[in-house]
Amino acid sequence: MVADQDRQELTERFHIERLWVYYGNTPALRDITVGIPADAITALIGPSGCGKSTFIKVLNRMNDLVPGARITGTVRLDGEDVYGPGVDPVALRRRVGMVFQRPNPFPMSIYQNVAYGPRVHGQRDERKLRQIVERSLRQAALWDEVKDKLHRPAMDLSGGQQQRLCIARALAVEPEVLLMDEPASALDPVSTAKIEELCQSLKADYTIVIVTHNMQQAARISDRTIFFLAGEVIETGPTSSFFSTPKDRRTEDYITGRFG
Amino acid sequence: MILSRRACALCALGAAALGAAVAGVNVVRGALFALAPGVGGMLAASLAVVILSLAAVAPPALGVARERAWSEPGPVEAWLLLVSATPALIVGMTALVWFVERAGLGFSLVSGALGLALMNLPFAALGALQAVRQDERSAGTGALALGVPEARVFRDIVLPASAGALARVALRAAARAFGETAVLMFTAGVEPASASPRGLMGGSATLAVRLWYLTSQGQGTGAQARACALWLTVIGVALALAGRPREAPVTERGR
Amino acid sequence: MRPWSALVVLVTGALVATLVHEALPALVPRALPELWGMAFSPPDRFGALGPLTGSVAVAALALALAGPVGVGAGIYLGSLAQGTWARLLSGAIDTLTGVPAVVVGFLATSFLLPVLRVVAPAGGGYGLLPAAVALGVMVVPTVEGFAADAMRAVPADLVAGSLALGATLEASVLGVGVAHARRGLSQAVLLGTGRALGEGMAVEMLVGNAPHPPALLAPSQTLTSVLVQQFGLAQPRSLWAHALAVLGILVLALAAGVSALGARRA
């Protein structure tokens, strides 16, 4: 297991170095240097306001849209600087997909929700689109539940189904990385279990970064864990050893429930 | 991508260009005629009916606002919204029957002001309600929790807190009244007052009515018509711009 | 209901009641000659159908012109616009709001009619077309305002969801934002239509006011143009005045009906 983790550290997908993020003059992230392994699940944990959501939004430059946000340092995706000159954030987001905290299906049919992304990226062939929709819905473990009502409004689905639809929608543009910002926090336990199962089945092909405030969830599904506190990375390591033998006192306090 | 934003902007700028042309052409061409004979009296008549009508519409509008500030929107709001779509022309017809004929006020500035007040009543009541219901209400709710009576809270806390929004509603109502023609031609008449000045009980064409009258008589190219158009545009636009609602907070956009 | 609210509801209700009361004598069967005729030309012809057709046609034409411009401006200002361009455009539209209808009519008389006169010398340039152009200019701010409101109500989450798929901001707003706001956008067009149906002054100045069937470039009638011209002239309690009140009810029903349709769908 440990050997397996080490191998993953060799193939780093993201490498973040000396990252600072400010909102106005207030630093939200301070001097972060950390790696995200490829084809594994990395969990970001920490109390609310610790910067984990800011961090995930840096990875696909969704932070660009926040007025007054400013960053320094480097974020490399497969060696290329994400914030480098000439990098198109729109093209980046195609490679780095994102699933949001609350399910946000588009106001259109289930089919159109999944077909939307490929269509935006130029896929016009209806036959190919149908294949993509089916493949993505199968990957998101939603196909069997919706195959007979693909043209019904996405809003008619339950919350858990909506979230899996959003995952299918993200998968349809064939990203390399999937960012998930507390994807199960608004869902019931059964739907949560389905999302977790889904993450496991996806990690063979995708690099997954998941923000969670649920430590059991992090322990159950992730390969690596990064612990944030007050805008800093306190500890990072393979999930198995992270929860059993934390190195930092603050990590131990947090995972044993002494604060947060 | 940039193109589509440009296209959007250009499409919308068509409208803007028209607006600018309307204002610009008037200012330039009308400036020479601003003091054409007879215009002063009609300007005075216009301002008089506007001010009178605001004075008449303020008590009921504020009254409704006070009574309903803490209620959820209900049938009263629904009704006001429905009748606020009543065309000014229809209000003018009613005002002719009510004020000019039945009440015996004849074609007069008073009839005109009452007609304008009637026209603005749903608009002003809804506007005042919206103004006092904005976040200012929460401050008032705090006072209510202390056991202060609603009417008192309204006077002491809600009114001062929403004064700016209420003033903007009044300015927009004034802009509507100042440019209004249909109501006034049926209530204040189409002839300039200079012949027989009888104060507010006398009739007088306002700038808007006079401009309509001159144009439909084929005298739309005269100095007086242009002067009317100039004053109407400058003051109407100034009132509308001064009264425009505050922009939605920037944080709601593009995130 | 408390006193001021009751008073305001009563007064506005009485307004509608008065109009109906004025119209009653004309609503007796066969009181009006040719009520469904194409020409409203007192003292002997009170055809409401011609003016009604004119009103509907001129409003439809006006919205065909102003709808796309107003909705486009609303989408742009409600979701995409930032900085100088946005301030400029929204300032221009607010300026347009302040220009009185009669001034729009006056300017169209001075600048648009001479041009159209070249195309259609027989009719003097008058007709539904110039009236619709003037109306269109007047309802652009109405449509823009409601359309921008609808766009501002689009949840930020939704647009972010599309951005996260690698769509541009423009594609996200047009693809997902507009889909969410489509009810509000069609409502904006309906409210603009309601306003166009009720507007009288600019239409009267441009439509030509002849009791002929509606035509784009020949003198025609609308409900509102007839009322503007004749309501002040008709002797109170004459058949003429009652017939005009019938037209008034039609205007009110059309304008308030279409607007209410718009408001209901919000």
What is the strand tally of chain B?
0
Question: What percent strand of chain C?
Answer: under 5%
What is the residue-mean pLDDT of chain C, rounded to a whole number?
91
**Rg of chain B, alpha carbons:** 21 Å
Q: Which architecture of chain B per CATH?
A: Orthogonal Bundle
Catalogue the unreliable spans of chain B: 248-255
* Number of E strands of chain C: 2
Return the domain count of chain C.
1
Approximate shape of chain C: globular
Oligomerization: heterotrimer
Shape of chain B: elongated
Class per helix and strand makeup of chain C: mainly alpha
Explain what you see.
The complex is a heterotrimer of chains A (260), B (255) and C (266). By secondary structure, chain A is of the alpha/beta class. Chain A has helices spanning 2-10, 52-59, 89-95, 110-120, 126-139, 143-146, 159-171, 189-202, 215-221, 239-244, 249-255, and strands at residues 12-23, 26-37, 41-45, 69-77, 80-81, 96-99, 177-181, 207-211, 224-229, 232-238. A six-stranded mixed beta sheet of chain A has the order 6-7-8-3-9-10, with helices on both faces. In chain A, strand 7, helix 8 and strand 8 (207-211) form a beta-alpha-beta unit. Chain A is globular, with a radius of gyration of 18 Å. Chain B is mainly α and 255 residues long. Chain B has a single domain (40-244), classed as Orthogonal Bundle (MetI-like fold), CATH 1.10.3720.10. Chain B starts with a helix and ends in a 13-residue tail after the last helix. Mean pLDDT of chain B is 81; it is low at 248-255. With 266 residues, chain C is an all-alpha fold. Chain C has a single domain (50-265), classed as MetI-like fold, CATH 1.10.3720. Chain C is 74% helix and 2% strand. Chain C has a two-stranded antiparallel ribbon. Chain C is globular, with a radius of gyration of 21 Å. Chains in contact: A-B, A-C, B-C.
